[in-house]
From TrEMBL:
Keywords: Hydrolase
Molecular function as annotated in GO: hydrolase activity
Species of the source: Halogeometricum borinquense
Lineage: superkingdom: Archaea
Ion transport is among the record's keywords: no
Gene3D superfamilies: alpha/beta hydrolase
Protein's name according to its UniProt entry: Alpha/beta fold hydrolase
Entry keyword annotation includes GTP-binding: no
Length: 276
């Protein structure tokens, strides 16, 4: 684990893969969702690090990064990404983001000039035209039983992000995810600051300015950010004359479809990145 200063905030990151001083390997940076640490990408990192230099970072407020008092903004978190890539002397990177990480990825591609391609998973352009998180999911994610212990709180909050079948049949993995989250989740004040940054995010009027190849993947049964958001995002980006945009749905996929269907998602990401 390495750190870099981003405007007074310490951002923790790690790299995997065949990086060399001559930077012969292309770089892929992964950006995770609200409250989650960099463990979230362990399946994708393992699949891609034989060919790519993989960069994993903890968003501000999460994991080994500083958790300053809010407010936070998606633009600040995009600047944190640039601080990491600058420290690594990376001139170009494929940027992969899920959920809040997909919002950071959009902002990063709009504000900085290192992006080679975008892969946006289970995310949204935000703003009034986006399809909101259903009220019952919001309640489940932010209101927990008073008598729940730490493990029960995490399990309770994350259930809408998974399919019922996965949650009930893969208790071994769910328990490991709870362990990882206990070790690295954003504390409550930082989680709130991240949530407020997500609520304030709106890139819809800017997306036509994107001119990099973009892959958008979304589960059809996403109970956190409904699948319609993926299509809206693709439509807005496609207005750019030079943008190549692909939108694909994962049938029955949850918000965490890239964990539940990791093999298929890894193969799709590899194919996309190899052909950019």
């Amino acid at each position: 684990m390495i750190t870099v200063d981003s405007d007074g905030v310490t951002i923790a990151y790690e790299t995997r893969g065949p990086a060399t001083p001559e930077r012969n390997a292309e770089t892929v940076v992964f950006l995770e969702g609200l409250g989650y640490g960099r463990w979230m990408w362990r399946w994708q990192a393992a699949a891609l690090s034989s060919r790519y230099e993989v960069v994993l970072l903890d968003n501000r407020g999460t994991g080994d990064s500083d958790a300053p008092d809010g407010p936070y903004s998606i633009a600040q978190m995009a600047a944190d990404v640039d601080a990491v890539l600058s420290a690594l002397d990376v001139d170009e990177a494929h940027v992969v983001g899920a959920s809040m990480g997909g919002m950071i990825a959009q902002r990063y591609a709009l504000d900085f000039d290192r992006t080679t391609s975008l892969s946006l998973l289970c995310t949204s352009h935000g703003g009034p035209e986006a399809v909101p998180t259903p009220p019952e999911t919001k309640q489940r994610m932010f209101d927990v039983p008073d008598d729940a212990d730490e493990r029960e709180v995490i399990r309770y909050k994350m259930r809408p992000a998974m399919t019922d079948a996965f949650f009930e049949s893969r208790d071994d993995l769910v328990s490991r995810i709870v362990d990882w989250r206990l070790a690295s989740d954003a504390p409550e004040h930082a989680r709130t600051a991240q949530a407020e940054a997500v609520a304030a995010f709106d890139s819809s009027d800017e997306l036509a300015a994107l001119d990099v190849p973009t892959l958008i993947l979304h589960g059809t049964e996403d109970r956190v950010l409904p699948v319609e958001n993926g299509q809206l995002l693709a439509d807005e980006i496609a207005e750019a004359a030079d943008a190549a945009v692909v939108f694909e749905e994962y049938d029955g996929g949850s918000h965490l479809f890239f964990i539940e269907q990791a093999g298929a998602v890894n193969d799709r990401l590899a194919t996309f990145l190899n052909n950019v």
